[in-house]
Amino acid sequence: TYQTTIGEALTDQVRRAGARRGCTLFVTLLASFQALMGRLSGQNDVTVGIPTAGQALLQDDPATEGRVLVGHCVNFLPLRGAWQDSTSMAEHLDAVRRSVLDAYEHQAYTLGTLVRRLGLRREPGRVPLVEVQFNLERLGEHLALPGLTAGVTPNPKSFVNFDLFLNVIESAAGLRIDCDYATDLFDEQTIARWIDSFRSLLAAVAEDPAQPVSRLNLLSAAEARSLAASRQASPTPYPRDVCLQELITAQALRVPDRLAVQCAGAGLSYQALEARANRLAHALRSRVGRQDGRIALLMRRSVDLPVALLGILKAGFAYVPLDPLHPPARLRLILEEADVAALLTEADLASGLSGAETLPAGIPVIVLDEAALAGQPQIAPVLERSAEQSAYVIFTSGSTGKPKGVEIPHRAVVNLLTSMARVPGITEHDRLLAVTTVAFDIAALELFLPLISGAGVVIADAAALEDASALLALLADSRATMVQATPSLWRLLLEAGFRSSPGLSMLCGGEALSRELADRLLAGGGTLWNLYGPTETTIWSAVQRIEADGRPITIGAPVANTQLVILDRNDQPVPTGVPGQLHIGGDGLARGYFGRPDLTRAAFRSLALADPAQPGPPGRSPALQTWYATGDLARYLPDGSVQVLGRMDDQVKLRGFRLELGEVEAAMLRGTGLGAAAAALRQDAAGVTRLVGYYVEAEHQPRSPRELDRAVAAQLPDYMVPSAWVRLDALKLTPNGKVDSKALPDPGEAGTGRQTRFVAPASGLQTTLAEIWAEVLHLQQVGADEDLFSLGADSIHIFQIAARMAKAGIGLSARHLLQYPTIAALAEAASNAAPEQPNSLKAFLRARR
Q: I want to staple 588 with a disulfide (CB 3.0 to 4.6 A). Which of 70, 207, 523, 538 is the partner?
């Protein structure tokens, strides 16, 4: 039981506010308590139980006539309060007053009778229909007993029937609150905050009952100041009028001979990087008819990758990164949506772009080679460039079935990089190992953060990224002091034998970081940083150092010149512990979605949020500020940190990539002849997340999982292709006509697309391989002739299997799995010591298409 008081002054104000609506103090407090419970739970429909004395009812019963009744005889009346977002508190008071009068007229109908008549499904440990109780009572304040001074105090309790019971005792000094709560659900700090919110809400009711229930203030002055202080970083000076490439030029002038970029044995000094990028900039300006806009970039991972990026920026354009592993249909769609002035690529990649399948008509193709750079000046072109112009446009998955481009200005990138240079921190003596595809926005941090700091960047080439063991070897050989990766990639490295060491800074973001993974990464002595941020707010918006202390993982403090605020669905700040949508403001905001003002208006919202730490003049409304609505559900923890709880929509993260299930479903239906389709993420028993495709075949048009796999892979990147397929007779719908995602079954054995007759492994090696496959894919057994990809394997599974084969002493790699996708063929290859063919992950993606 938590006990506190509400003073006489506020009690009188509340009593008078209720009386003006014809409400007793009981009705006013009950209506306010219902409003509090609704706001805390995010619901507009709340049932609260109130106790009533049953003696009068029983004495009126002929069966008890003439008897004196002794006992508790309490009945509980469930009072349902419902309101709309626009309902005023005055209207809610009127409704509760009528409800209370009606309930007392029918109090002979007991709670037990009601529960039985409704036939509610009973759940162990939960009181049916009513979980929260409210009561107001007035006790005798003075007991006149000869020779004694006496008072009234409640009995201590060990057990209660309800999850929460707010008992209010009225006296001349105000109100005393006795709040009983279930300790399995709540702690004292939480209850104390809720009672503070109740006090703040009562003050708002007393001040202006015409306010909507949805906008009544729940924050005490102290909590409002505390949350305001934690939600924004201190204003930090940075070169806000400088473009990104100018920061790198400054380092080239300061340390011209220092090694800037390395990849696969090749390297460029800062001076060579600067000169080569300047020559490319001149070549682009001479070849492209326009002098601004966007240039698409399609290149493999090499030392020329940062040259290309910088050359585009120095020429006055924004870059649009493309991934060579993406299917041609995807590349063409992005090129069309981005309205690019040209495509910069390599000679061998250019040869595959001639068909209309990839390249829209009218887009010039520029090849980055020595011939293109020949004769070009080594000093940067002189041109006017604003930090408010776009540095890049990066395309992410879109809910409508089309990718959407996020425009990021130079100012936002410069703010993020200069902030990250301070925290987590990087010096000119560091070396960052870059492992992320340039089409993923976090690659910009990997490539540019070292280059604005005079440090070195080591770019992992495609061969290193196809094998976790090779990537580990590169990490050791490069003597990298910093690595940024998604949780999925960190898990692969751990499986391959990675162990952090003192002096290594590990950056982890793109997906939720679990406590278990954090502890494994910290075991070797390295430092771990949890990073959070959507593409729309420039890569990362919050940074938190994670310690091996068992505490919940949070996203930490905002980066410089960035604000975080959590709002309910009515744009009101939420109290500590209450979930709401995380909004981000400040200098990291994107310019919006390229060519999509409708999407921009929906996601980038102008809100007037008061700052309790810096209140403006009385009567003046707070200024409008732009906030990005992340769609992430989050809450403040008692220490002021922010914990992200998940998504509020169909957007999901897989292997660090953001994808919209609607885009996957659109691709499933396009050109396949399916009757219906749905996509969902599912976790297996080991916590591995996979994308599952559910489909209903059209009449007389059966489709195999392999056919669907190839059809989707021809349209979408690998991470957006379901790794398991489940055929259903029909998709269950919710009452509003949407697919009921909760009713979609787990794939299990049925979702693997297994069509072959089971053939038992025929040798010890085959048995070992089958056990490894079954363990990674979470299957009961694997036959010798079953195809790896028909079993639902994706690129992550391939790396996991390769790591386990290496531990078992089997001399096979991920490339062998791509070349020999059955147990029998793989075992024969191992026995014959077959040489590796030049297959790669790209071969796997081609096979799917």
A: 538
